[in-house]
Amino acid sequence: MKLRIYVTLKPGVLDPQGKAIEHALSGLGFSGVDSARVGKLIELEVADDTADADVDAMCRQLLANTVIENYRIERA
Amino acid sequence: MKTAVIVFPGSNCDRDIAVALEQATGTAPHMVWHRDTELPAGIGVVAVPGGFSYGDYLRSGALAARSPIMTAVREQAARGLKVLGVCNGFQVLTEAGLLPGALMRNAGLNFVCRDVALTVENAGTVFTRGYTAGEQVRFPVAHHDGNYVADPETLDRLEGEGQVAFRYAEPVNGSARNIAGIVSADGNVLGMMPHPERRIEPAHGGDDGKRMFAGLLEAVGA
């Protein structure tokens, strides 16, 4: 089974990379970009019987730093 | 006094901090590989050095924080072992949950590599007792992810409890409240981005860092 883990910065956490992207887009002439936020996509191939609780534990213990990041699990 | 330095793949300040510890104690520290599961018996201080452990993959310090030796460091820290994390070591200690908050990409996105002025905020910790409160010292910084972040309640608690050990005299990397180094609630764990171990003799351009190691080792009975 394929899992996609989206790791994103929590709202309110300043994202300097996102800011730089936002500025670069406006520099390219794209107007109306109000905000850019950079996150991560982690794809996992796991056994079909992997428990949801285990996937959640993987996210909390390693894949996301819950001090600054949120995560969302998507089953492909 | 016996001391130890943890070595991860990608550590690059492990030898610098070993020299600083040896200078302060007269004895070379144990170099402990990240896959080891136990710290040497009878050590008083363990250093988590700077560098780019695991190539900063996933997040700086994230993978090192989950290596086998860190379980032992966490257990010993709970019993009062003095733990000093510098630069990547600070990132490892926050990732390991030994210190609150997180270190994010520098606000200016640049890798910052220069000397910076720091104010000693709390000279009452075992790590800073060689200084006086309010004193300015100069240490080098060399990091990409030194932007200290924590929620406002945590920041207020750190300030209120005297857990801010060092503050940048002026903004360096976007750190909340210019925090450069913090101690744990129990005071036995210090994490800081600047490098005291790179400032321990006149040939380094100064020896402001020497007093940290001397004070710490004196406190633990070296």
In short:
The complex is a heterodimer of chains A (76) and B (222). With 76 residues, chain A is an alpha+beta fold. Helix content of chain A is 32%, strand content 28%.
List the helices and strands and how they pair.
The complex is a heterodimer of chains A (76) and B (222).
Chain A: E1 2-9, H1 16-27, E2 40-45, H2 52-63, E3 69-75
Antiparallel strand pairs in A: 1-2, 1-3
Chain B: E1 2-7, H1 14-25, E2 30-33, E3 43-48, H2 62-65, H3 68-78, E4 82-86, H4 88-95, E5 102-104, E6 112-120, E7 136-143, E8 147-149, H5 152-160, E9 164-168, E10 179-183, E11 189-192, H6 210-219
Parallel strand pairs in B: 1-2, 1-3, 3-4, 4-11
Antiparallel strand pairs in B: 5-8, 6-7, 6-9, 9-10, 10-11
Helix pairs in contact in B: 1-6
Protein name (chain A): Phosphoribosylformylglycinamidine synthase subunit PurS
Enzyme class (chain A): ligase
Catalytic activity (chain A): N(2)-formyl-N(1)-(5-phospho-beta-D-ribosyl)glycinamide + L-glutamine + ATP + H2O = 2-formamido-N(1)-(5-O-phospho-beta-D-ribosyl)acetamidine + L-glutamate + ADP + phosphate + H(+)
